[in-house]
Design a protein that fits this description.
Layout: H1 2-55, H2 61-67, H3 70-80, H4 83-104, H5 112-136
Helix pairs in contact: 1-2, 1-3, 1-4, 1-5, 3-4, 4-5
Length: 147
């Protein structure tokens, strides 16, 4: 009788441990999926903001930036991402805001000032993508586009 009870107790403990491991795996998978979605959305918002602002008259540049939803996604990024990704996100966000301010002043996209900021923005986006891929455990790739 004792051996039967001991056997049942061992089976119960094994089942609980197995469930705990399964739950932890699901939590990691869910977090990774959430990060992936927020990372992709943030990158898309930054790119969309840039494209909308380039096409807008100076008086509408700030509205174009706001409509791309960069701010809400920036806050989401700050909640789920690690420090490296947050820092990279902030760097890209600051540059896109500098572009916003420049274009809102009426500076044209063929100006040297804009071209310099656009080049910095492309480099910041590539670095942010590299950091995001690293945090998600995705292997490195050559991100040469966007300049």
């Amino acid at each position: 009788m004792v051996s039967t009870a001991l056997g049942a107790l061992i089976a119960l403990v094994a089942m609980l441990l197995n469930e705990r491991v399964k739950w932890q795996r699901e939590q990691v998978s869910n977090r990774r999926k959430q990060c992936h979605e927020i990372y992709a959305s943030f990158l898309s918002a930054l790119t969309e903001a840039h494209e909308r602002m380039r096409e807008s008259p100076a008086a509408e540049v700030r509205d174009a930036f706001r409509e791309a939803n960069c701010y809400p996604l920036r806050y989401q990024l700050a909640i789920v991402a690690g420090q490296e990704v947050v820092d990279g996100g902030e760097a890209a966000f600051q540059i896109i805001r500098d572009i916003r301010d420049l274009l809102a002043q009426g500076v044209r996209i063929d100006s040297a000032e804009y071209k310099a900021l656009r080049k910095r923005f492309g480099a910041a986006l590539r670095e942010l993508q590299r950091r995001m891929r690293s945090e998600l455990g995705v292997g490195p790739i050559d991100l040469a586009g966007g300049s």
